Amino acid sequence: MLKMLSFKLLLVAVALCFFEGDAKSGERNEGSLARRRRCLNGNPPRRLKRRDRRVMSQLEAPSGGESVCGGLYPRLSCCSRTDSQGWLHVETKIFSVINNTECVKLLEEIQCAHCSPHAQNLFHSPERGEATEREIALPLLCKDYCKEFYYTCRGHIPGFLLTTVDEFCFYYARKDGGLCFPDFPRKQVRGPASNYLDQMEEYDKVEELSRKHKHNCFCLQEVVSGLRQPIGALHSGDGSLRLFILEKEGYVKIFTPEGEIVKEPFLDIHKLVQSGIKGGDEERLLSLAFHPNYKKNGKVVNTRKNPHQVDMRTAREMDGLSDFTGSVLRLEVDTDMCNVPYSIPRSNPHFNSTNQPPEVFAHGLHNPGRCAVDRHPTDVNINLTILCSDSNGKNRSSARILQIIKGKDYESEPSLLEFKPFSNGPLVGGFVYRGCQSERLYGSYVFGDRNGNFLTLQQSPVTKQWQEKPLCLGSSGSCRGFFSGHILGFGEDELGEVYILSSSKSMTQPHNGKLYKIFDPKRPLVPEECRITIQPAQTLTSECSRLCRNGYCTPTGKCCCNQGWEGDFCRIAKCEPVCRHGGVCVRPNKCLCKKGYLGPQCEQVDRNIRRVTRAGILDQIIDMTSYLLDLTSYIV
């Protein structure tokens, strides 16, 4: 009995020690929390006197209303009446360009985090590094508050909030459930509650709309990385399903159906174009076009030995003397003429005009960008829809999408769509989606602006009117990937799938360009009905491509001779004056002389050679054999 009693007393003593230790630990935690209260300058917060609270409540905020910070931190604060005016106007430049009142109010409220007793922890958390000079200094936000700030201010702050909500809150929201802003008592259990965000019904509506919207989003698949300012991607139409990626520096690379980049570039003209890494200029390599019958005639001309490279010897330069500024041109590239690279279609609106160049199909554009030709004809006459992006001449800050029609003057012609791009980003023209994988996107014109905002235009089959819709791209959570950087261009492959070319915002890393492919996450990446047989890339086998060695082939198969050559397939060299004394012209103005003669036209007798009047038959055979061997070496 005594043993049992002593054991119970021991348990009571241990329990008392435990509760006492826990109480002391709580006191230590509370004390450590107080010790962790630090302002941005490292000093502890100060208690505001009644006079300080009255002065701060009367301060005017940048939007014109009263300062809210005095009400959020009425007792303990890191702000005083001497420094409050300074931090209230830190983002004056941003406030001046924002026309969204709710966003301004949110920014005013977030600036109050400078007054928080925990300002040092909110702004200098070990969860993230220091903000760069170009970023807005934000405290660690609570997750629900972060989402509300994103949806309210997205698109209203120039150069900011260009990512998805998940990416933005991954960096700016608290992930461990610790201290976050707002760090003052909330009015509701869930959601952001403050002077401006206590309407939870509206907040729930935004979240519900966002959830519904995500179900209809498309995804992006990163296909290629490590590119240098990619500005275009196109196919050759030869059945090989190769994608030709244009880099502004002057290279064209081939992306194969097997997912590899061919080591040697298809085209290399980097020495002919200007160098540099500026992303916004309009110089250097900008575009490339393949002949519709490229598989047979090789225009853009490729080599006879390698179908993955262009033969630069066949390059011909356009005259460049005509003024085609602000125009859409229409050319006939199937021509037999050797002296001009193209002819003028007789149906061009200015075919016989003396006022306009005959190449002009439509004019009146101001700063046209990419033009897309829908591969599907609009009617039985095989008329094609042509859509071009252009700046608005009357309002330089806005842009427009034009549907190009023969002979129209777009100085006065109404545009298909006119709008002001998000965040002052220039418009980037795209393509009409005619692929197989994303059925919901079929027939939509996909385009965007340089800052990463995507849009679509869809034509109603009944009214024929075009309707603008935002193109929703899923976040990293739903798509296992996301878009980042600036839009440099769009691309289209042989199957009609649309691609996006981007470059990082940082210009210090030149090889940061990427190629993305748009796909519908509701369908397989390559549905069974979308599979086709890939035809391997082949060398040219036409008679002209095999035999025309000293010239170039026209799209119709005629061999046009280079200067100094003539005859069938340009095999006969021309020498002017002609070769004398039995000499043979083996190169333009290059004679191969018989033994005993020399000079440019073999007009001189070689006096150093003893001439035998009665040479033997064997010596003559040897001389003739040597001459024929030399002649054969030139011909071969």
UniProtKB/TrEMBL annotation:
Keywords: Disulfide bond, EGF-like domain, Signal. InterPro entries: 6-blade_b-propeller_TolB-like (IPR011042), EGF (IPR000742), EGF_extracell (IPR013111), Folate_rcpt-like (IPR018143), Quinoprot_gluc/sorb_DH_b-prop (IPR011041). Residues 1-25 form the signal peptide. Pfam families: EGF_2, Folate_rec. Residues 571-603 form the EGF-like domain. Belongs to the HHIP family. This is Hedgehog interacting protein.
